[in-house]
Design a protein that fits this description.
Layout (H helix, E strand, L loop, with lengths): L1 H26 L6 E9 L2 E9 L2 H22 L7 H8 L5 E2 L2 H16 L9 H13 L5 H10 L5 E4 L4 E4 L12 H15 L5 E5 L2 E4 L9 E6 L5 E7 L2 E7 L4 E4 L2 E4 L13 E8 L2 H14 L1 H10 L3 E7 L2
Antiparallel strand pairs: 1-2, 2-6, 3-5, 4-5, 6-7, 7-10, 8-9, 10-13, 11-12, 13-14
The chain binds adenosine-5'-diphosphate and magnesium ion.
């Protein structure tokens, strides 16, 4: 019985290995590739993968692994889940340095680098301000001066200390709340693309809300056709892109209106309030983590400083901005 099982398992593994090898070799021949598209609700948005693969079996398998990788990152980095690694750091990180996963460490490292280079326009410690904004969205009332001042004491990217040799995170004070909402989706899309590439699927597009990461273009095309919308949601231009990432952030979709003024879900760390200007920024960068975080930072920074920072990152930015 045991022997029989062993033989069956062995035969199954051989067949699987054969299928994977053939699929992998097939994936290298562009003319044999077919288009597949899958969607799944992840990280609070509809995650979409478009991929060219030799057959439906390899496409489904690779994409399910890519979605799984995104789901695992969400478990680490979500601020909506009390049991996420990020929330554990928020609860205990002030007590002693905490060792964290390589993924979380990498994202925090990149977030702090951008905080420094953007003079704090991007700041993953804005959690207490974001909590006040979420409450304002429900109650339609702005936080009081006192509440803003209390939150301000807990905000500031210099209050996070990373130790790269030990892979640890230490927070300066109790009550801090880290928020990776402006960077985690871009990173997750990068990781999903890497999963597909491991399966030999190089012609792929991953979309997570406003963050898109692109691999090789569709077969026999120069690039993926990506439409850019204007601040009114109307198509503005179409770009053909490949092997890069494109992210759009802004104040046009998520906001709360109080006394005739709009406060967006992107917070200006200097005031603690949501942005009141009408702004939409699209960034094209080498990878998703850069494009996503830069797009958020540039909304706060504004056009002049924003272009300078984008250039320093080797990225390109399109601004659509109007006083509210
Ligand atoms: P979305 O997540 O809607 O695609 P963004 O990538 O611009 O848009 O991220 C916005 C999110 O980033 C907010 O919901 C909040 O969680 C977080 N955030 C808000 N303000 C800042 C800021 N100044 N720096 C870093 N993160 C921010
Ligand atoms: Mg962003």
């Amino acid at each position: 019985m045991f022997k029989g099982n062993l033989l069956t398992n062995f035969t199954f593994l051989c067949a699987l290995f054969f299928l994977l090898t053939v699929s992998f070799l097939d994936a290298r021949k562009e003319k044999n590739l077919l288009r597949f598209e899958f969607r799944k609700l992840l990280m609070g948005v509809v995650a979409r993968i478009v991929v060219y693969a030799p057959n439906d079996y390899i496409a489904k398998w690779a994409c399910s692994r890519a979605f799984l990788r995104i789901a695992q990152l969400d478990e680490l980095m979500s601020d909506y889940r009390n049991d996420s690694e990020l929330m554990r750091v928020c609860r205990n990180g002030h007590l002693s340095p905490l060792q964290v996963s390589k993924d979380l460490f990498f994202v925090l490292e990149r977030a702090l680098e951008l905080s420094r280079r953007s003079n704090g326009a991007f700041d993953v410690t804005v959690g207490p301000f974001v909590s006040l904004w979420r409450r304002a969205r429900q109650t339609k009332q702005l936080p009081t001066e006192h509440e803003l001042n209390e939150a301000k004491k807990l905000v500031g990217w210099e209050k996070i200390q990373l130790d790269a040799s030990k892979g640890t995170v230490k927070l300066a004070i109790a009550g801090m709340k880290l928020d990776l909402g402006g960077i985690a989706k871009g990173y997750a899309a990068d990781c999903a693309l890497k999963v597909l590439q491991k399966f030999g699927l190089r012609h792929a597009l991953i979309e997570l809300g406003g963050d898109i990461v692109l691999g090789e273009p569709p077969p026999n095309r120069k690039g993926w056709r990506i439409g850019i919308l204007n601040e009114n949601g109307k198509p503005e231009k179409v770009l053909e892109l490949a092997n890069c990432a494109i992210s759009t952030s802004g104040s046009t979709e998520q906001y709360v209106e109080i006394d005739g003024k709009r406060y967006a879900h992107i917070v200006d760390p200097r005031t603690g309030l949501g942005l009141t200007k009408l702004v939409l920024v699209t960034v094209i960068a080498k990878d998703g983590i850069t494009a996503d975080s830069l797009a958020t930072a540039l909304c706060v920074l504004g056009e002049k400083e924003g272009h300078k920072l984008a250039k320093a990152y080797g990225a390109m930015a399109f601004f659509r901005e109007r006083k509210n």
